[in-house]
Amino acid sequence: MNAQRIQEVLQELGCRSIRPCGDHIRANCPLAPYLHKKGIDRNPSFFVKIENADRSCYHCFSCQSKGTLVGLLYELQRFGSHVDQDLLDRVCLEEKQDPAQKARLRPSIFSKEFLMGQKQHEEERWAEEEYAPYAGKVHKYLIERGVSVATCEAWGIGYDPEKKRVMFPVRRHCDGALVGAVGRTVEKKVEPTYLTYFNFKKSNFLYGEHFLKTSSEPVIGEALGYDLPAQEGVVLVEGMMDVLKLYEMGYGNVAGLMTATISKRQASTLKRVGRALYLMLDWDKAGASGRRGAIKAFIEKSPVYDVPGIFPCSNCGSRWSKINDSGDHVCRECGNLWTLYDTEDTRRFKDPDGLTSEEILDCLSHAKRVKISS
Length: 374
Known about the structure:
Layout: H1 3-12, E1 19-21, E2 24-27, H2 32-35, E3 46-49, E4 57-60, E5 66-68, H3 69-78, H4 85-95, H5 99-105, H6 112-123, H7 128-131, H8 140-144, H9 149-155, E6 158-160, E7 165-171, E8 178-185, E9 194-197, H10 220-224, E10 234-237, H11 240-248, E11 254-256, H12 264-273, E12 277-279, H13 285-298, E13 304-306, E14 321-323, E15 329-331, E16 337-338, H14 357-365, E17 368-369
Parallel strand pairs: 10-11, 10-12, 12-13
Antiparallel strand pairs: 1-2, 2-3, 3-4, 4-5, 6-7, 7-8, 8-9, 13-17, 14-15, 15-16
């Protein structure tokens, strides 16, 4: 976006002290009421890059927020600020230039592979109108599972009355665009339990990745003064209900694989976030395999923590365990040592969603950092 259009957008957002600064436009940060101390940006620290042939990105050197101009508008909406829909539509339209046109303007940086990637990137995006028939419908199944109406609204959860499935929309990290949805049946003995919509490929995305904050951005718990274990990192779980359970407790940085195995693309998204990783996958053999894959993908990139489960000790019956340096589980009551997942009786294990809030907090507070030798 050119300099004149950037200044017009910032003026419509109510920014002050707008002025050119080299190849940037400088202004007071529009996110100051939400992210700055005392809600004020006294010395203009917000910069938007002038890009005639590419998307313009912003960076605030005070609150460390950054992203595209489109992402800024969605971020303001997420905080509850009013953003004129006409402004949002105009910025979205202007920033979505044709890749071929950009290639002609800057041919040296646009390869064939890049253009193919851009094509795939746009093909993965789905119009909000396609999800509209399901949106805003909160089924009693969610309320019975402990998910509040406010959380359903924040995550855009809906319902498909024809197939009788609760709908979990999935949005991507870079811009919050809708990329697909997963429907879970609310009836017993209906197969499959989960069904994907809109030709959605689950391995390409994480459930909740659009809410993830990078290491330079404050998370909800920190902003509100919550004293939660592992809140400085990303808690990685398997299912959508696991994600919502932790979100209800105050965890904003929580993501679901929607399966037991982490893919390269999911790992790439988490690496860009740049936070420590807390592995709270289901405590069964599939979860054990997914845990090993995640450790292998991250161990040399960022701190990785394994979260112990809660299940009966075969010696004394206690449900509380901890992890030792070898990665085995030790009973906190009697000290009995055993290797997890050595039984076919998976009924002994509970998924994170099946635990109480107190049990989840206890598990996270006893997370053990995985050593590089692992």
